[in-house]
Input
Amino acid sequence: MGQGYAEQVQADCLSVPENNSMNFFRNVNVNITFSSPECSNQRDSGFFACGSSPLLTPPKPYTQTFPQNYIATADSIVYGRLYGQSSGTDIKELTFYNGDPVYFSANDFAPWLPTTYCPFPYNRYTRSGPAFTMPHCYGTMRNKLKYDNSYFDRLNHEWIDAGVQVPYPDYNYKLCGKGCPTKNWLIMAHPATQLWTSNPEPFKIKNFYEESGYPVPNSALYGGNYFVPFCAPMNVRKADGTLAGQYYGLSYLTIFCPAVIVFPVNPYLPPDPYSPVPPPNTPKVNPNRAFYSLEVWTFLTGRSSQPNYPVGSPLLSKVRYWLYSLAPGGPGQTRDWRQPFRVIFQSTIYADYPTRIDCNIIGTTEKQRICINQTNMKVLTCY
Output
């Protein structure tokens, strides 16, 4: 007979079931929306509609709200928070799928050049990059069961780091040594738990959507199916000026999964973003509650006009959000937040999600920089 071992631990027992461990759904629906900032925000880029003009006084903001049948009552909504995003200071350079540099002609590229959007005195506010037909798209994430190990390279995927490093300086660093501060305090729990994704093989993607082996979302004329079309496609050329294809919109990929706080627990607890208590006395999140995380990947949607020379759909940026369950209830969360399941992931302030791109223009050695800024992105997940 083998020996047993047990150790007494302290835990809080819930007298009322809170559904934090109930099974989720086979499919989770996603709505992604954007909006243009007001002129007074003085941003240098933003999400713009077709025909945006400084002649309007003031220019009409471009905003899309979520379908009302998803958010019929305010108390049915739970709000997730921004965790982190790929750096808006990084400069990308576009290449074809085979690695050759992408070029544009000066005439084709003119609509993407920075253009004054707001009238005086807000003339620093410019439109840079493409304009869009619709600030809204939608799609579905399917559930991969926790015992389904078919994801390629899932354990080597690097999730987006947090924008804020924890722990803060008031912690006792002797608890975990010099390596204690981290921007990776919340990790995805898959494959220990389930995972939902809009692409059956997301982790094959390193630089282009096509690496997954699945079609790039692009089938909607006015938004939808994880795709937002440009007002006009942009011609893509080889270095000699030969037309190779077009970029004609933005495509998206989403991944949703339960998450866990990195151990040791205590040094890595961030402040509770739902608490009304201001710093430095803001309480930390309760590690005994449920955590979830959502990543949104953005791609520049490409199509080819030449056989055997694919334009490809390059990965532009990634954004990650997180949800901290406050059940049994709390600010921004109902008591039974899983029924109905409606979570809006967003920044707590009007947010910029910029991607800066240095573009090659035929006939000059100087690159033209543009910024594709998906301002005020919000992501509604629901069943």
Q: What stands out?
A: Helices lie at 106-109. The mean pLDDT is 79. The chain is about 0% helix and 30% strand.
